[in-house]
Amino acid sequence: MATRHVMTAAGCFAAMLAVAGSAGACEFYEAIDNRTELFDKPDSGAGLAFAVLPETAQACVMEQAADPAGHKWYRLGFYTVANVKYNVDGWVRAPGDAAPAGTTVAAVSEPTPVATQDEPAKPQQGAKEAFFAKGWTLDNARSRLNFVTIKKGTVVETQKFGDLSGSVAPGGEAEVKIKLESVSTGIDIRDVRMRFLLFDIDQFPEATITAKIDPQAIGQVFDEARMTYDLPLTLTVRGISKDFTVPVVISKLGDNLVSVASASPVTVSTADFGMEDGLKKLSEAAGDIPITPSSPVTFELAFVPAS
């Protein structure tokens, strides 16, 4: 991500978009040259990354802040790629940021056994096995599942589901339930139309994701705290199931917090789940506007030990 710069033609276009649909005015615009993670809050360790911004994007910076370690962060209102606007609300690390002189971030570590005259020091035994032997429960408050819709060919909007639940068993069997009634688009009438015309929640109130995670295959996350893993999963919507293999980033954020996030958007098509008629009704209800029949989906799921 480059430093603050003079507004380019793309920046001017972004400014017009800001006037048209942003929640507030941009303080300035920032060029994003590299793939950049978007976090839910400016925090030196506890924030959750819930999206990845692509290269060569133009970002609208709404606010600036510093985390407890003194690092500088920017809050983005939206970004544009090839003159297409993507609404977001999250934080990215400011370019060229470094901790102020003398600032340190304390690291929490396990106590090291102390050697005695009679017995040499031994590494902690069983911690890794105990970590993977836990059952895990999805923490809805720290989880996100977003999808992008495109109407009229160019209008891009980010929607989300607010009610998620799930678990991962000690053997790696995982299930996530998505309450379709919790769809949130920012417009009440559109939420109602999607619930009943597209998802048909009276008959199909939930979508489910099932997967089997191999504890041995992800063993390195215990030592390295973060890894990428190709996760085979099954998505079931309206009683129809489809298999996907999704690259995910698994992060060990502590002994009692694990994050599983999409490494890149997953494209889901209405045709795969018998939703063509529902999409047509949704289009007609909105004035016969064309709606792209597929959506990129991203997620960040936080898990805590089962009680």
Please tell me about this protein's structure:
This protein has 2 domains: 9-93, no CATH class; 127-305, Lipocalin (Beta Barrel). The chain is 15% helix and 43% strand. It is built from 5 helices and 18 strands. An 8-stranded antiparallel barrel has the order 7-10-11-13-14-15-16-18. A 4-stranded antiparallel β-sheet has the order 1-4-5-6. Strands 2-3 form a two-stranded antiparallel sheet. Strand 5 and strand 6 (84-93) form a beta hairpin. Helix 3 runs antiparallel to helix 5 (276-285). The protein is globular and about 60 Å long. The two termini are 42 Å apart. Residues 1-23 and 99-125 have low confidence and may be disordered.
Descriptors for this entry?
Lipocalin, 8-stranded antiparallel β-barrel, globular, disordered N terminus, signal, 43% strand, Lipid/polyisoprenoid-bd_YceI, TTHA0802/YceI-like_sf
